[in-house]
Structure formats: C-alpha cells, structure tokens
Write a structure and sequence with these properties.
The chain is of the alpha+beta class and 803 residues long. 31% of the residues lie in helices and 18% in strands. It has three domains: 197 residues, Penicillin Amidohydrolase, domain 1 (Orthogonal Bundle); 357 residues, 4-Layer Sandwich (Glutamine Phosphoribosylpyrophosphate, subunit 1, domain 1); 120 residues. The chain has 22 helices and 28 strands. The longest helix has 28 residues.
C-alpha cells in the first residue's frame, strides 16, 4: 500500500507539473506564467534609465536623458542613429503594444488568441489591410533615404528584442504564451494602416443605400442633408476659391444599386475625432502664436501615445509619437508646432461586382476583366490554419461575397479606399520634425494620402495655418453616397483633387484657425464634399470662444481643453422641458424634471443634469428612429443635429409616430414618453450603482488592449465632459493627448495624456498621468536644447556602437 501511495503521489506531482506548464483553451500555462524566475513577477520592476548599452550598426554614440515622467530625450549625431535609437527606446517601453497592434492590423490575432479571433482576422484580410500596407511599403521603397531610416528604426527595435529572453518578455507575452518576432518596415506600414483604418472617416454607403430604397430620395435628403443651416466650417466661409481652375467631375447620371444589404463589417468608432486650434501673435496675450491639439481616441492602456524628444544637430523635435512609427506625430520643434484632427472625408466607396460562372472574371463595360486572387492563410493557435480566397478588382478587394456576409453566388461588393493607395505619409512627419517655417510645412503635406487629416500649424514667426490634407477623389455631385454599379467604368473615381486645391487657410483675418471634425468648407467650395456626419457642436463652442474677445492666454487654452459645456443639450432640452405636458408627472418624475430645469448645461463631474440628459436622449433617439429597426437590413440613423432639427421644427412628421401604436404620436408625445422611460431607467441604474452624479453615471475607464483586461486597466476615472463636448471624454474614449505650445523662441509647451510612458503594468509609470489628466492639469515639457543640458533629468543612458 505504501508503494501505491508513493506512486500515486509521484503521478499526481507529474500531472500537476504537466497541467501548470500546459495551455488549456484560452488559459495560459499557469506554472510558466507564475514562475518566480521567468514569470510575471519578473515584470514588477521599472525600466532601467541609466548605464551604457551597445547597439549594432550605430555610427556614433546616442545620449538618452530621462526626466521625472520617464520621457526620453534622445540626442543623436545623425538621422540614421536617431531613428535606430527611437526604435530601440520605443520597443524598450512599449514592445508588446506596438507588435500587438500590427497583429490586429494584419488580421493575425488568431495566431495568439485562438479561434475566437477568426472572424475578426477574416474581416481585416478582406478589408485589405495587408494589401494597403504593401502599397505603402512599395511607395516608401521608392525613396531611398526614407527606407534607410525606416529600416534603421526596425533594426533598433530588433536590437532590443534580441536582448530579451523568456524572463524579460513583457508580461502580455507570458500571459498569452508567445514570443515577439522580428520587427520590419512592413510592420511599420501595418501600424500606419492600423491608424488609417481607425481614422477612415465615413463609410455608410450600404446603410444609406438601404435607407434610400426604404424611404425614397425626398425623405433621404431630409434626413441626410449635405450641409446644415448652422455650418461653421474649418475654412472660414468668406474664403475665395476663384483660383481653383480644375473643374469638378461631371455626373454620368448613373443610378445607385438598390440592393438590400443585411450586414456590414465593423466600422471605426464614430466618436474618434479631435480638436485643434491656433491663434496668431496678434490675438495672443503674450504676442506669441499659440497652438493646441487634443486627439480623441480610445482610452487604452498602454496608451496610444509615447512622448519623446528626438534631436540631431540639424533638428530638435518633441511631442507624441506612435509606437511603431517614426518621428513626432503631434508636437513641435524649435521653429514650428503642428497637430492633427480627423477630417472624416468620404474616401471609401462600394461597387457591386458581377462575376462570370467560375468567378475568375468580372464584368466592366460589357467586357470580362480578370480578377486577381489572394489566398489568405490565417494561422489559428492550437488548430489547423484557415484559408480564405479574397478576390481583387481594379476597385480593390471584394469584401462581401458568397464566402463572407453574402449568399449571392455571382456577385459581390468591392471596396475602393484611399487607404489602399500607395503613399509615403511617414515622410510627412519626418519632414515636419525638421521644418523651419510655413513653406517647409506645406511641402511636407504633399506626401500625405490617408487618412484625411486637418493638419494645423503655428510658427515662432507668428504664422498660423491649417490644411485639410489627403488624396481626395474629384467626385461628381453625389458620388459615393450609395453603392455604385461596378460594371460601368463611368462610376469609377475619375481623378483626384490637385493637392494645391485642398481646402486650406493661412493667417486668416479672424486671427485663429481651428478644427473639431466639422465640415471642412461651406457650399461655395467647388468640389463635392459629402456630409458623412460632421461634428456640429464642439466646433461652434471653440469658434465662439475665439470670437468672444481680442486676446487669449495659455490659461484660456487650458480652460477650453477642459470646457464641459453641453451645447447639444442646451439646444434641445429647454425646448423639451417647455413643450412636454407636466400635469401628470409622478413624484419621482417631478423631482428629475426639477433637477433638469436647474441644470446649466455643463457636464461637470458632480452634476446630475448630464446623467438625466444622457438617459433621456438615448430613449428619445430610439423612439424617433424606430423605423430604422428593420430585420436583416443594415441602417444608420440620421445625424444628431438633423434629429434635433426635426424634433424642433417638424414635430408632426411621420417619423415621430411610433410603429405599431394606434395613435399618431408627435414630438411632444415622444418627449413625455421618453422622459418617463428615462426616469425609470435612471432609478434602476441608481438602485444598482449608487448616486446619479455624472462622474459615476458616465464611468470613464482606460482599458487594457487585451479586451480591457481588468487587472491592467483603470476604472472610475474622475473626469467630466462627454460626447459633442470640447472635453470629449466619454466611457472609453476621449482626449488621448492634450498639448499646448507657445511659440516663444524656443517654444515652451505643456502636455498630458491618460496613461503613462511605460507599457509594463508593474511599473509606477504605467498609468501615473491619468489623475493629472482627469484633473485638467498638465506637465511642462522639458525641451532640452542640447545633450549637455540635464535640468530635471533623473537618469541618462548611452547607446554606443557594438565593437
């Protein structure tokens, strides 16, 4: 018996050892993960910020000073060394993040997560993400100098990877039980595609096609006007466009394809936007131009941004970088400052494709044109690979066909996207980093193809400017609103707007430039600009602010970044409160009604008014647009501004009627019905979650990239703001980087973002900026003028050539 127990104990020990070091489904090898010598505990240290490290292929030493916020100030003697060092330093702090995002872009998540990511991967392959990255890489390869520094960046990343072992891998590799692979220029191109998709702009052609088919053209035009009556465009209305001498493409008078489309691929979050503005030296209280930028993106951990200073003897740039891409993206140098907002131009169109019987050719102008095919092999962790055949036409990839979200044997829908056009957008930022004035800024923009961006500028000379930049198709009036017939070349993009005719302004008479994702121009611009849901509230608050007085200061900029005024609510709620019948309100409803009446339309953290508004608007919106709940039909409800316009001006329209009720409801009826339901929802929420203060109701959090992994995320961040508000902070998106730059000589700057410099959840630098950001405060950016200047530096690392 004792031998039996001994054998049983031994077998049990072996079994436990095997179990702890084996992966079961989505569960990582727990033993390996918790190993005290190689597991997660080895990540509970802050990164080294001093000492000497040998890096292969450096031409000279590189000095890296770290300040108290773990911001690296990189001083190199030449550009190749600079970008090799940038790659190394970025990988040192953000390796897992930068690689994970390229896996997501390439449709490779199944390799590390398993079968549950297969549909996502298929979608991204069919979207042509890898194809687009290949086009970008091909274009960059034509520029030998550009490719040299992109390769140097990749070499720097690999120098760091090659120093790692299973003990020192970032914790997420251990959690998912895989290891980093070599970086390459293609991965940088994939990272750029990741951002291009995120900021792709409008893509509702299929939804609008369904709406046109269901409601007719007259009703469609009422719901989705090209311009609103309050359009306050990015480029001032008084702009003279008479210099433009390339005409708009003439309409072929073709008809849209009124197919019924049931389902579409995932779209970028429509809340992703941004603010930027700059004032001239004459409008500045100090006599120096001032610029601000705050991109509105997902609040993720690790943060989307990594702040660096990048310096050579020929230029000195500082600001927010994208892990995986070169140069400073939103920042400044000794002469200029720049920043971006999403221009959300419609640069994605859809074409119905007609195939022959074996789908080897598609019809174009009554002839058969050969398709090309990409066999997409999707590797799946623990399973056999999945192979998907994606057909390509001259438009682009056939995303929907009989193998994906469609059942039509001999037709499909192809995507035409500016993101697939070969571009060298990386060069825009390497050139901006070196720019010395407006001419250099304008020259740098010529390389930018996609995504469409409003790129703002200010200089120490006092100039300010803004270009709506991208490669834009010169469309005929109405082109791209609906699915087009792909069998006729007359429906193709016939050309592009010449870059010099992109909407722009320099030193406007009003003394400021600004953008907040609103319409770029008014009706006088001589090219077709489709309203794909342009922002209509933040931009008016910003422009009204800069029209309100003659001079502005840094403090004014801070106040505007943190402005919580809810113009959207202010334009509808008083009308609702005044119009609705209050004679039969219950006691609970009357209390909420009184609170709403007392609210001054600021979404501050301790206010209850914004919670009432949010709950009320959600219910009201659903009631108004119940006609859009059509089974097996993809639809997109009308724009927010137009919804409010109809509620206030066409309250008896048939859209106000609730489907399936015997009475014909009006807007006034909807106000009462939605209010009662909203009060019920608020009380239910309060019973489960506590008081209705906006900070609690909104529940802002910064989620880890691995599906908001709770242990690596931050919840209940105490910040106000909200959608359509200048302080555009909602549940999981918001100002991902706030920057203010005064164009002194050299510039002085402030910056903050909701995260931290380290990608290591065990580091004190992982999320240490969040509370400062939430409080509306900033860090001074320590713009060192040489590698000898060491003020506020807490550590120095020297990168030296390998001997």
């Amino acid at each position: 018996m004792k031998y039996f127990k001994l054998i049983l104990s031994f077998l049990l020990m072996v079994g436990i050892f095997f179990a702890l070091n084996s992966k079961f489904g989505a569960i990582p090898p727990i033993g390996k993960f918790l190993n005290p010598y190689t597991g997660v505990w080895q990540n509970e240290t802050d990164e080294a910020i001093s000492g000497t490290i040998a890096i292969p292929d450096l031409k000279d030493k590189v000095t890296v000073h770290y300040d108290a916020e773990l911001i690296p100030h990189v001083f190199a003697q030449n550009e190749l060394d600079l970008y090799r060092a940038q790659g190394y330093i970025t990988a040192k702090h953000r390796l897992w993040q930068m690689e994970f995002q390229t896996y997501a872009a390439a449709g490779r998540l199944s390799e590390i997560i398993g079968e549950k990511a297969l549909n996502y991967d298929r979608q991204e392959r069919r979207r042509g993400m890898v194809y687009g990255a290949e086009q970008t890489l091909s274009k960059m390869s034509e520029d030998k100098n550009m490719m040299a520094i992109v390769e140097a960046y990749a070499d720097g990343v690999n120098s760091y990877i090659n120093q790692l072992n299973s003990k020192t891998y970032p914790v997420e590799y251990k959690l998912l039980d895989y290891k980093p692979e070599a970086w390459s220029p293609k991965k940088t191109a994939l990272l750029l595609m990741y951002m291009t998709k995120m900021l792709a702009g409008g893509d509702e052609d299929m939804e609008y096609t369904n709406a046109l088919r269901l409601f007719g053209k007259e009703r469609f035009d009422l719901l989705y006007p090209d311009f609103f009556d309050i359009t306050d465009p990015i480029i001032p209305k008084e702009t003279d466009w008479s210099y433009i001498d390339v005409p708009q493409t003439q309409s072929p008078n073709s008809k849209p394809v009124l197919d019924s489309i049931a389902e579409t691929i995932d779209k970028p979050d429509p809340n992703y936007g941004s603010n930027n503005w700059a004032i001239s030296d004459e409008k500045s209280a100090t006599g120096n131009a001032i610029l601000a930028n705050d991109p509105h993106l997902g609040l993720n951990l690790p943060s989307i941004w990594f702040v660096m200073q990048l310096s050579t003897p020929n230029h000195n740039a500082f600001g927010a970088t994208l892990p995986g891409a070169l140069a400073v993206i939103s920042g400044f140098n000794e002469h200029i400052a720049w920043g971006e907002t999403n221009a959300t131009r419609d640069v994605i169109d859809w074409y119905k494709i007609e195939f022959n019987n074996n789908r080897t050719h598609y019809k174009l102008d009554n002839q058969w044109k050969a398709v090309s095919m990409r066999i997409e092999e999707i590797k799946i962790k623990g399973q056999e690979s999945y192979k998907d055949s994606v057909l390509y036409t001259h438009h682009g990839p056939v995303v929907y066909d009989k193998n994906f979200k469609s059942d039509n044997e001999l037709s499909g829908y192809a995507m035409k996207w500016a993101g697939h056009i070969p571009g060298n957008g990386q060069k825009t930022f390497t050139e901006l980093n070196k720019a010395k004035g407006y001419d250099d800024y304008e020259k740098a923009l010529q390389y930018w193809v996609a995504p469409a961006q409003n790129i703002i500028f200010a200089s120490t000379e006092g100039d300010i400017a803004l270009w709506v930049q991208g490669l834009f198709p010169n469309k005929w009036e109405g082109q791209g609103k609906f699915v087009m017939d792909g069998t006729k070349s007359e429906n193709d993009w016939q050309g592009y707007i010449p870059q010099q005719f992109n909407a722009h302004t320099k030193n406007p008479e009003r003394g400021f430039v600004s953008s907040a994702n609103q319409s770029p121009v008014d009706e006088t611009y001589p090219y077709f600009v489709f309203n794909d849901g342009y922002e209509t509230y933040r931009n008016r608050v910003i422009n009204d602010f800069f029209n309100s007085k003659d001079k502005f200061s840094i403090q004014d900029f801070k106040d505007l970044h943190n402005n919580n005024y809810n113009l959207k609510a202010a334009e509808l709620m008083p009308y609702m409160l005044k119009t609705m019948d209050v004679s039969n309100l219950t006691k609970e409803e009357k209390e909420i009604y009184d609170t709403a009446e007392e609210w001054h339309y600021n979404n501050d953290t301790d206010e209850i008014g914004p919670s009432i508004w949010n709950a009320w608007w959600d219910v009201l919106h659903d009631m108004v647009w119940d006609e859009f709940k059509v089974e097996n039909t993809a639809l997109e409800t009308p724009f927010t501004y137009q919804t409010i316009y109809l509620l206030k001006n066409k309250g008896e329209d048939d859209f106000m009627d609730i489907k399936g009720t015997p009475e014909k409801e009006t807007a006034k009826d909807l106000f009462n019905l939605s209010f009662s339901k909203a009060v019920e929802n608020l009380n239910d929420w309060k019973a489960k979650n506590g008081d209705l203060n906006w900070v609690n109701y909104k529940g802002t959090f910064a989620g880890h990239l691995l599906q908001a992994l709770p242990a690596f995320s931050r919840f209940d961040i105490p910040i106000g703001g909200g959608k359509n508000i200048v302080n555009a902070t909602s549940e999981n998106w918001g100002p991902s980087w706030r920057m203010i730059v005064e164009m002194t000589s050299p510039p002085t700057a402030l910056g903050i973002y909701p995260g931290g410099q380290s990608g290591n959840p065990g580091s004190k630098y992982y999320d240490n900026f969040i509370d400062t950001w939430a409080a509306g405060e900033y860090h001074s950016l320590n713009f060192l003028q040489s590698d000898k200047a060491t003020e506020a530096i807490i550590g120095t690392q020297t990168l030296t050539p390998t001997k």
